Amino acid sequence: MTTREVHPTYGLGRAEPGPPGSWPSEPGPPDFRASEPGPAASRAASPGTGRARLVLGALAVAATVPYLLLKTAWVAGSHVGIPAGSVLRDPGPVLVTANAVTLAMDASVILLVLVLTRPWGIRVPAWLLTVPAFVATGLLTPILFGFCGQLLTRALGFGAATGGGSGQEAFLDPWVPDVVYAGFTVQGLALAGLFVPYARERWGRLWQGVPGARLPSSTGVMAAAAAAVGAAVGGAHFYWAFGGTAGLGGERAASWSAEASVGSAVHGLCTVVAGVVAVLLARGGRRGAWWPPAVAWTSSAAAACWGLWMLIASAGQDFGPAEQDTLVMYLPYAGQMITGLLSAAVLTRFLISRRPA
């Protein structure tokens, strides 16, 4: 893990690939168990029978192979994909541990696919599915949009320069990030294609109709806080995305690239959206109830998980002055995580309010 993952180039630069109190009102925690499935859940009792699901599951599993092979090789001491002179050829204990952890994280995608495609998956406790699904959504969504955006940037001729003039040695061979992030993109699309129908069949009643009445004032306070922090964090990311260098440090600013700008813009957008949609959920109303929870799930996961991941990456192994983060940069990472967690809390309260009595 390196702090290039903090403002990732999602495979088109030289970045190392990274990879996911009680409520004051009357209702208790949501009971999403499938022990008493309704008609929709009964129809989901054999989710693996659909050909489309089997194809999507196979694609998701196949897309994990490049990353799993590379990480396994690196944990075993191989230098495949690591050029001579890279500091990654002499990894410290932090990087070795990070490789092992991210290897396990990507391997868990296979278990997630099994839950979403096999008949017994509908009986898995909700928390055991939603926690890894939330993390997977959060880590893969920015990669999906960022990597595709960077491909477009390069196709338009804006992504050729990656700051190589700073004299730094390359961390990885050029093919490694592209292959890995292409695999992550396929994983994200395939898992989305599996999770959406699963969630609709198991919990679809929670977002039918309209949002309804305004949520309790305490939830509104959380939503307002998410929107305020999200706006500040989004502003910082957009500032960096459009060429601002304050807070980056001299070495990092000198090595900034168009691809890094795309990644920063994606993170800023996810964070702002997480705050805005939290307010929409808290206000209630007559709009369709299905899309605000879907947007809140995706954006809050992206903000919370990548904010935490950025903080962890920033505290990892030191790769030189160009990789060090300034104190100013830590604040948006923490704010991004806080925005995502607040938005997720508002989403949880919204779903609790729609639980059948």
Q: Return residue spans where pLDDT drops below 50 for at least 5 consecutive residues.
A: 1-7, 13-49, 161-168
Order of helices and strands: HHHHHHHHHH
Number of helices: 10
Number of strands: 0
Helix content: 55-70%
Structural class label: mainly alpha
Task: Work out the count of structural domains.
Answer: 1
What is the general shape? globular
| Distance from first to last alpha carbon | 47 Å
Offer a quick outline of the entry:
The chain is an all-alpha fold and 357 residues long. The protein has helices at 39-43, 51-75, 93-117, 126-155, 175-203, 217-241, 250-254, 258-283, 291-314, 327-353.
How does this model look, in words?
This protein has 357 residues and is mainly α. It has one domain. It is globular, with a radius of gyration of 21 Å. It has 10 helices and no strands. Residues 1-7, 13-49 and 161-168 have low confidence and may be disordered.
